[in-house]
Amino acid sequence: MDSRKKWALFDKAKTFAxxxxxDDAIDLLDRLLMDDFPEPMVIFSRRGYAKYKSGQYASAxxxxxxxxAIRPKAPNVLFxxxxxxxxxEDFDGAxxxxxxVISIAPETDDAYSGLAYIYEYRxxxxxxxxxxxKALELNPENPRSLRRLPVLGQWHxxxxxE
Length: 162
What we know:
Blueprint: H1 3-18, H2 22-34, H3 40-53, H4 57-70, H5 75-87, H6 91-104, H7 109-121, H8 125-138, H9 143-157
């Protein structure tokens, strides 16, 4: 298959993913990868995202690992890999990826709220609160921070005195 046809199929896989037909996208991307697609990195990124969206977190991490091995400073890929690791309860791996995202793209509010969530889970509420607040400083509409900060406030303030 010539390169032009391969790119057309890649676009079709993107269309499948955009219309939430993730399994179709993954199947097509698998075929392209086996057919010596000229930019395999792009396949790993796109297929990893489709796997993430379809709940195949461990497999998505494998694809993102392939991508990051070639292009280690891709904040979007690192961010979604961190989300996958979070779902897999690989919190140390997720923390590293979120921290890498912040070092590369410090304006990424969702990376701060992702870190905050993990620290909240680990009962480091002071650190979690500071990270949620940083996320809100960058984006006052950060959904995770808006949801979790009030809960943190309830835990941190202790029982009410009546």
